[in-house]
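testing teh design pipeline on a random one, pls ignore if ur not involved
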């Protein structure tokens, strides 16, 4: 089934049929509930000015919850690669500043302020954002969280209205009592941790009781901050032996969310060979006749798992 007539390309963006992406940094002065970054599909490679791709179906909403990085007051801005990949794959991703987590407030606090923040962010995206009409209706909302962000994200997801959850090295063993937040989830979940980390592993005695479908990825030698690229990260400690953890995690989260949220207008991707068009310097979207085939774009999209697998066999 072809996408709507107003779509400038012949497919709806998806994990195996990606496009470019755009991003905006918004604050309460712009009408956002808190400072946040918003990522979305686009046909323009100029990220900060790229327009939203409209007319090609509606997109699921993803909320990414950052963790606590001592000394980094704007830690939410460190998360770029993963939300960008999800946006290329047909999601609208919001990465809000969670003041409680950023300040070190433990997610187990009964009246944790970030629960209200997450509710406000979802409400704003669905009702007040200028492009709210491109979002798939609730419950097409996924939550992705890292470290403390995985814990507060799981608490929020357990309240309802969330269709999928992905936790990146949530410090589950720091939760003071049972049940753990992840034990309260009833939607599909994907959990990651490194076997060299402290406090992030979910023991089999708990894992076996979690709601299905459930998936886990354990990185050999993986460390807590391997999901973020190398750079001047104030809280970075040891790094694991594999430099492709961030890329592999991006691939796996992308495919997981694609499996839990179907496109609103399914399309059949052509496998005919086409010449991949070069990105135009003007940034204007390619015409339908010169659009790259989805399969040709995807060959350069999900590559982290392949690279990591090749490295592990050397």
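output:
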């Amino acid at each position: 089934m072809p996408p709507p007539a107003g779509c400038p390309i012949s497919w709806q963006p998806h994990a195996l049929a990606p496009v470019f992406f755009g991003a905006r940094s918004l604050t309460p002065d712009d009408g956002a509930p808190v400072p946040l970054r918003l990522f979305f599909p686009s046909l323009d490679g100029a990220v900060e000015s790229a327009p939203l791709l409209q007319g090609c179906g509606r997109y699921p909403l993803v909320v990414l919850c950052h963790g606590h990085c001592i000394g980094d007051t704007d830690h939410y801005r460190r998360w770029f690669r993963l939300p960008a990949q999800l946006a290329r794959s047909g999601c609208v991703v919001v990465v809000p500043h969670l003041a409680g987590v950023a300040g070190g407030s433990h997610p187990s606090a009964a009246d944790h302020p970030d629960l209200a923040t997450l509710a406000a962010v979802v409400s704003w995206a669905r009702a007040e954002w200028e492009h709210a009409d491109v979002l798939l209706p609730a419950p097409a909302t996924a939550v992705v969280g890292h470290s403390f962000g995985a814990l507060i994200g799981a608490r929020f997801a357990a309240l309802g209205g969330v269709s999928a959850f992905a936790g990146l090295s949530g410090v589950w063993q720091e939760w003071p009592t049972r049940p753990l937040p992840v034990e309260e989830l009833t939607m599909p979940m994907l959990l990651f941790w490194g076997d060299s980390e402290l406090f992030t592993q979910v023991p089999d005695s708990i894992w076996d009781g979690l709601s299905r479908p459930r998936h886990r990825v354990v990185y050999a030698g993986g460390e807590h901050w391997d999901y973020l690229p190398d750079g001047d990260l104030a809280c970075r400690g040891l790094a694991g032996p594999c430099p492709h953890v961030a890329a592999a995690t991006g691939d796996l989260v992308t495919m997981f969310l694609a499996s839990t949220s179907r496109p609103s207008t399914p399309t059949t991707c052509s496998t005919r060979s086409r010449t991949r068009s070069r990105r135009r310097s003007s940034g204007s979207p390619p015409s339908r006749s010169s659009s790259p085939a989805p399969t040709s774009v995807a060959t350069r999209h999900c590559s982290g798992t392949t690279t990591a697998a090749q490295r592990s066999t050397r």
